[in-house]
Amino acid sequence: MTAVAIRPRRIPRAGVWAASLFVAVVALAALLPAVLAHGSPSDVDAVAALRPPGAAHLLGTDANGRDVLTRIVYGARPSVLAGLGATALAVAAGTVLGLLAALGGRVLDEVTMRLVDVLLALPGLLLALLVIAVVGPGTFNAILAIAAYTLPSYARLVRAQTLVIRRSGYVEAATSLGLTRGRIVLRHVLPNAFAPLLVVATIEVGTALVAAASLSFLGLGPRPPAPEWGAMLSQGRDYFSVAWWMAIFPGLAITLTVLSVTVVGRHLQRRVEGRLA
Amino acid sequence: MTARRTVAGRIAARLGTSLLVLWGAVTVAFAALHLTPGDVADVLIGDSTVTPEVRAQIVREYGLDRPVPVQYLTYLGRVLHGDLGRSYQLHESVGEAIGSQIGPSIQLALTAFALAATVSVTVATLTAKRRRWVRGLFSGLELVGVSVPSFWAGILLLTLFSFTLGLFPVTGGLALPAVALAVPVIAVLTQVLREGLEIALDEPFVLTARSRGMGDLAVRVRHALRHALLPTVTLAGWLVGVLFGGAVIVEQVFSRPGIGRLTLAAVAGKDLPVVMGVVLVSAALYVVVNILLDVLYVVIDPRLRSAS
């Protein structure tokens, strides 16, 4: 998690288009992998094992003769879902914590925010490893672990947004009209805090995706035969002196996805901030 | 007078936060111990086998037969005395286990940091406020740098420099792991530094320096850089996390000994005392780095020095 505010630079239009296109391809692969790849990701062909990239297998085959391209296409769903799932979970939990801190009174605010400080002070990956040591490895637990260490920054953001919105004219108007607290939060505070939250979340999906792939690479996410990018890379690591394509291409898929998501996210950030300013 | 009070105030505030972070980390570790399903004694023993006598000793040491608040205070007291518990898997104390593995990790992290600092200061100084295409090119490279997962960067480096070109050893070298670990740090540091430099280069004092006939490079290095360094101090926490967390992954890619291997083995073997110990040590490291940087801050920014 980069808790760093960097003023987003304008990205050339062509770059934004290329990134959006790549995000669309990844989304298609995650939703309907059969459209992009022929065959099954678990088709074993011992004769065709460790074939370099060529006409029959565009990105080569792995140690069991499975087509690397097919596996990357099918790997999109678990890889992307882990990133999206962890982000969604972190945004939801962070929103609740942020609202509690901003609206729950001084003591609750202090306690929540100091907890956030502590969580931000611990290296994210180590915190995720601590969570996995507690709940055990696995697909869902990896998502839980990533959510645990990304949620503090969302809590901080929601708290800051809520504090600003609470002093705005329209919330004062709603209060003087006698609306209940819960209704004001749901109808006025949340919708207005959401745009900046969504933008940050878009950029952070990339971070969560890398974190999920890292945990799989370390053998703590989805278990091997599953075609997941981090797990494929980890298997490829054992063969990279004889079959570099096994590790290089899944890694390229992760990098290009994260890069595209970041480009689209920063583009959105510029637009939203331009509108709010 | 005011300046001195500011320094004292800053140090007091920093110490307060540091204690809070450490106390919080201990509490998180204690909570982890109790949130793990199963008997706490079993959790501490993990996947290893011990005699009933050892088990009884664990119950006594941690006060597991007493109420939870007492257990918490017992645990807090032990950590305060530098006792991080025992790994029953490794048959040694957590302190010894971490002590024997932390050397290579610190060496790796410091090398990566030195590399990242050198590269990003150089690149930022040379490219700030340059022609559009120069900045565009480097911004693009930085975007790629942030997006590349360090394990893939490591594998790329190994494939290219060790297997194809045969320039570096596949295991045992320090250069390639340090580069893999430094990539994301370089990408972020360069962006922050360049941004700071571009703001500083618009300041009146830069114009003054130029009008005195100072060369462009000298203005950048002697005047603007100092200002650009200030915002990077706030990156300290992130930096410790990236270097320490990243080391876990990079050590795995390059089969290096260190904290990463120790932690992963502990997670796989449910050796919770070791994982908790690593988290506590990293929190302590974060605190130390922050205090060091606070001192550095005063060195960089003369406004914070005592006026006497």
Description:
Chain B: It is a multi-pass membrane protein. The complex is a heterodimer of chains A (277) and B (308). With 277 residues, chain A is mainly α. Chain A has helices at residues 13-31, 33-36, 68-103, 106-121, 124-135, 139-166, 169-176, 181-217, 229-237, 245-276. Chain A is elongated and about 75 Å long. Chain B has 2 domains: 2-89; 98-268, MetI-like fold (Orthogonal Bundle), CATH 1.10.3720. Chain B contains 13 helices and 2 strands, in the order ααααββααααααααα. Chain B has helices at residues 2-35, 40-45, 52-62, 68-80, 94-127, 132-147, 150-164, 175-200, 204-211, 216-232, 236-253, 259-268, 272-300, and strands at residues 86-87, 92-93. In chain B, strands 1-2 form a two-stranded antiparallel sheet. The model of chain B has no long low-confidence stretch (mean pLDDT 84). The chains are: A mainly alpha (277), B mainly alpha (308). Chains A and B meet through helix 4, helix 5, helix 8, helix 9 and helix 10 of A and helix 1, helix 6, helix 7, helix 8 and helix 11 of B.
Q: Any guess at the CATH architecture of the largest domain in chain B?
A: Orthogonal Bundle
The CATH homologous superfamily of the largest domain in chain B is called MetI-like
Question: Tell me, what's the shape of chain B?
Answer: flat
CATH class of the largest domain in chain B, named Mainly Alpha
Number of helices of chain A: 10
Q: How many structurally independent domains of chain B?
A: 2
Question: Strand percentage of chain A, roughly?
Answer: under 5%
**First-last Cα distance of chain B:** 7 Å
Fraction of residues of chain A in helices?
over 70%
Keywords (chain A): Cell membrane, Membrane, Transmembrane, Transmembrane helix, Transport
Domain ABC transmembrane type-1 (chain A): 76-265
Membrane topology (chain A): Multi-pass membrane protein
Main location (chain A): membrane
